[in-house]
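Deliverable D2.4 — example input (structure tokens):
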């Protein structure tokens, strides 16, 4: 399977572009789409899910133009949008039965897929509870279940862990990772650890443009040998911020532990440390990451 994005752009006003000149080629596996809020991720997701039409460029699914023939990708698409609604008075099982009917699954196939998805998303014990009693994290897992119900070849999830507590975030990432065999999964987020924990490849958007597209390891390698940690005073930290990309700071009783990126040792006591995806991301966009 192959999803090819060619010179894609979406214009919203005379001088306002959601995305510009985006070209990507995606095959089986989990692909992280990373970028700050407002980078154009949701616009791109809308185009790929055929909800939004591009102003320029196009997208091909296995060689077929989905802008001209959207039914080609809609039939194999699973989609979890950023804002996912449910019918609160239905139980989980009733809701998934309703979704299965909408997607044309026969009763035998629907029953088997519902059982499989409830198990995959770790919701077996609540299958007969009404959705209005579910936590935010449980509802997000319901979203994954409904998106996978028709066993899609293309799964698109937009900001699936926003607002979740750490435990729910880990559970949802695990559910996503377990879905990646023999399909293309596109995970759009501004949360770096979500990509680091699940994705094989990543694309970074900033201000509507593609910053990079590579494997996670290749991207992290860009800053290997340039990441340091040092214990400094507040005045030293202020000076370091002028010349280095500061990744994080932690307050200690005897000073501030700072993690930063630079071409040379920033202080006499600085120690080189292994690079992470967050370090490389900060180096690429030059702004603090969100966790």
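Example output (designed residues):
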């Amino acid at each position: 399977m192959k999803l090819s994005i060619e010179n894609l752009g979406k214009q919203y006003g005379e001088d306002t572009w959601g995305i510009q000149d985006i070209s990507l080629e995606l095959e089986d596996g989990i692909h992280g789409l990373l970028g700050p809020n407002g980078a154009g991720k949701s616009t791109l997701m809308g185009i790929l899910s055929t909800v939004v039409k591009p102003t320029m460029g196009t997208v091909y699914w296995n060689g077929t133009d989905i802008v001209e023939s959207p039914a080609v990708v809609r039939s194999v698409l699973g989609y979890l949008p950023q804002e996912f609604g449910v019918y609160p008075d239905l139980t989980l099982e009733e809701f998934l039965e309703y979704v299965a009917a909408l997607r044309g699954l026969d009763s035998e196939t629907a029953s088997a897929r519902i059982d499989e998805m409830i198990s995959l998303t770790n919701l077996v014990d609540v299958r007969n509870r009404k959705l209005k009693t579910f936590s935010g994290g449980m509802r997000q897992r319901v979203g994954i279940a409904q998106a996978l119900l028709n066993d899609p070849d293309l799964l698109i999830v937009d900001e699936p862990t926003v607002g979740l507590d750490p435990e729910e975030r880990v559970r949802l990432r695990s559910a996503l990772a377990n879905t990646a065999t023999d399909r293309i999964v596109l995970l759009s987020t501004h949360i770096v650890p979500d990509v680091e924990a699940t994705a094989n490849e990543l694309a970074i958007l900033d201000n509507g443009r593609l910053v990079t597209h590579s494997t996670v390891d290749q991207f992290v390698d860009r800053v290997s040998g340039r990441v340091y940690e040092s214990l400094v005073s507040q005045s030293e930290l202020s000076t370091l911020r002028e010349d280095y990309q500061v990744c994080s700071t932690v307050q200690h009783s005897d000073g501030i532990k700072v993690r930063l990126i630079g071409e040379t040792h920033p202080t006499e006591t600085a120690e080189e440390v292994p690079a992470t995806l967050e370090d490389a991301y900060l180096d690429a966009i030059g702004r603090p990451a969100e966790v």
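The two ends are 32 Å apart (CA to CA).
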